[in-house]
Design goal:
This protein is α+β, with helices and mostly antiparallel strands. The chain has 2 domains: about 5-60, Winged helix-like DNA-binding domain superfamily/Winged helix DNA-binding domain (Arc Repressor Mutant, subunit A); about 75-245, GAF domain (Beta-Lactamase), CATH 3.30.450. Helices cover about 45% and strands about 20% of the residues. The chain has 9 helices and 9 strands. The chain has helices spanning about 5-15, 25-30, 35-45, 60-75, 75-90, 135-140, 145-160, 170-180, 230-245; strands spanning about 20, 50, 55-60, 95-100, 105-110, 130, 185-190, 195-205, 205-215. The strands form 2 sheets. The chain has a 6-stranded antiparallel β-sheet, with helices on both faces. It has a 3-stranded antiparallel β-sheet with strand order 1-3-2. Helix 1 packs across helix 3 and helix 5 (about 75-90) packs antiparallel against helix 9. It is globular. It starts with a helix and ends in a 6-residue tail after the last helix.
Amino acid sequence: MSKTSNVLQVLRLFGGARKQLRATDIASLLGVSAATAYRYVSELEEAGFIEGASAGRYVLGPTIVELDREIRVNDPLIAAASEVMRTLCERSGATVILSRLHGHKVVCVSEMRGRHGPTTVSYERGRAMPLYRGATSKVIFAHMAAAEIALIVERDASGLRSAGLPSSRERLLAYLTEIRAQPVYATAGEVDAQAMGWAVALHHGQHLLGSLSAIYSKATPEAARARVGDQLVRAGLRIEGRIEAHGPTSQT
């Protein structure tokens, strides 16, 4: 890795139970010397990526917040989807989630809460989620390239088995092909026990961007969600049309 890559690896250490870190924690987690860890801390603190909290502990800093705003304002996928998501949320009553594929994880980049949505949704903005559970992620997984799917089988067969998915390449491809053939993919209780989700994949040409999903509470009357499949398909097509009209977007 380059020096810059090494320094930025520190930012990936934050998350989950690790809300604060000391330089000694960074040294241990990254397998570097204490002197190197303190240098990383100094460079990141100077740039505002981290800031001192108390007694030699550090938290993520204000530059992260500034960059998050820039993403929300300037990301072409979010720009193309925002108005469409708002309309879908109002008409369907569902909580509407826009997610991107990031490596082999799915990250929610925008969310609009609906009147029939569950109280809590695990797909919250900025949280990386696995590919293997829930309509939001699995519809993306189903549209990934066969070579990427084969790589996942090679690297994470145990994770696939834990999620109840086939762990052989042939069986997994067959399973995902069935999902891909459906105009809308739906699951219930796979991520949040009291939630049901419907999702469509989003593309720019042949390029997979992510997914658009509508999430309901399981207590929602069937009549209130009867048309969500058609509404979601139309919303997805509108977003793809807007992306096409305004030029390419990117996948990270």
